[in-house]
Specification:
GO terms for molecular function: NAD+-protein-arginine ADP-ribosyltransferase activity; nucleotidyltransferase activity. Keywords: Glycosyltransferase, NAD, NADP, Nucleotidyltransferase, Transferase. It holds the Pfam family ART. InterPro entries: ART. This is NAD(P)(+)--arginine ADP-ribosyltransferase. The protein has a six-stranded mixed sheet with strand order 3-4-7-11-10-5. Strands 6-9-8 form a three-stranded antiparallel sheet, with no helix packed on it. A two-stranded antiparallel sheet has the order 1-2. The protein is globular. Helices cover about 20% and strands about 15% of the residues. It has one domain. The protein has seven helices and eleven strands. By secondary structure, the protein is an alpha+beta fold.
């Protein structure tokens, strides 16, 4: 192993044991095969637990929350239907378009569980709507930018007691990272993105799951242990070019349309994974073709393509930054159980995510 990637016996005294003990005492073979498999976790699915019932804080809803990105005009909408509120759509036309779409082939997002956010937590979840946090008393994400830019293993040291086996996965991410990463990133910056994309095996929650849950539901003080990692991670993302403006599709197996009337401001506080292929919707393991479903069609302006730095480097994944702020443009009942909400991303009037370094551009240049 390259010495630069060794994270054992360093100055902080952090040591990654070569043989990790899992809850079912199986061995890790070849440093990659992880055990302690949770029967609740399937190869292509993780779920979001959201509690939208204000009258019953004990109720937990497991929602398959899928992020989909693609060309609506070419893939989802072969009839050229418009969702900008300027036209009332004919329901029969929409039904035909959806039927045609159902006949599309499977996509290649099956191995990426991050397109379905995982917020399964013990205990009672915060009951507010985690899809629209604009009214939540959370506050902007600030303070992390003043942290020093550290190597990945040092940046993750404060998380050692929070995220199970974090240092093992740090080492794995570094081992997967190219000696010369693309986009002008350093090895540690590229590995920070890769670490975010790795799915923990077994019953333990992945870094992305714990981080996003904290971003959406906890006080900013509880986010502090993540500051050093956020400094490295957001620095890496800020160095990537913004993807060209286009529609991002995000779905959830629940009717949320009543919560998003036109002109409603919407803020998503977590990192949001998206995909450039829309055909993921056809798979029953995600939204499927029946049952209550809500699609968020987002006109995104500052997504980052992380394919070159992802553990899943065969997938065209795009990531939205925390504090993505949008306004509801329109709502459409495309079918009795399928609801489409058109969102348009806007630059917020106040800073919701502090830039990671001076001169960092979180949004594309204008003018």
């Amino acid at each position: 192993m390259n010495s630069r990637r060794q994270i054992t016996n360093h100055a902080e005294g952090i040591k990654v044991e070569q043989n990790l003990n899992t809850s079912n005492n199986e061995e890790i073979k070849n440093g990659q095969q992880l055990t302690d498999h949770d029967p609740e976790i399937q190869d292509k699915l993780t779920v979001t637990v959201l509690n939208d019932n204000e009258s019953d804080k004990q109720q937990q809803m497991m929602l398959a929350d899928v992020d989909i990105r693609g060309s609506f005009a070419k893939e989802f909408n072969p009839l050229g239907l418009q969702l900008n509120g300027a036209k009332t759509l004919d329901q029969n036309e929409v039904a035909i378009a959806l039927k045609d779409f159902d006949n599309t082939k499977d996509n290649h997002m099956g191995q990426n569980r991050r397109v379905v956010e995982d917020f399964i937590q013990e205990g009672i979840l915060n009951t507010r709507n985690t899809f629209n946090d604009i009214l939540a008393d959370i506050g902007p994400i600030v303070g992390y930018a003043s942290e020093p830019l550290l190597p990945l293993y040092k940046a993750c040291a404060p998380l050692n007691g929070i995220i199970q086996n974090i240092l093992f996965y740090v080492q794995s991410a570094l081992e997967e990272t190219s000696e010369q990463p693309l986009d002008g990133l350093t090895i540690d910056e590229s590995a920070a993105i890769r670490l975010y994309t790795i799915e923990w095996e077994g019953s333990h929650q992945s870094l992305y799951s714990k981080l996003n849950y904290t971003l959406k539901t906890a006080s900013r003080e509880e986010l502090r242990p993540y500051f050093k990692y956020l400094k490295l991670f957001v620095t890496a993302l800020a160095k990537l070019p913004c993807t060209p403006p286009s529609n991002i599709w995000r779905g959830v197996t629940k009717d949320l349309s009543a919560q998003f009337p036109p002109n409603t401001p919407v803020t998503w506080w977590s990192f949001t994974s998206c995909t450039t292929t829309l055909t993921v919707l056809e798979n029953n393991i995600y939204l499927g073709k029946t049952g209550n479903r809500t699609l968020f069609s987002v006109e995104a302006i500052n997504g980052r393509s992380i394919r070159a730095h992802s553990h899943f480097n065969s997938e065209d994944e795009v990531l939205l930054l925390p504090g993505t702020h949008m306004v509801v443009q329109s709502r459409l009942d495309a079918a009795p159980d399928l609801h489409i909400i058109h969102l348009k991303q806007v630059i917020p009037e106040e800073v919701l995510l502090e830039p990671p370094f001076e001169g960092a551009l979180l949004y594309p240049k204008t003018g």
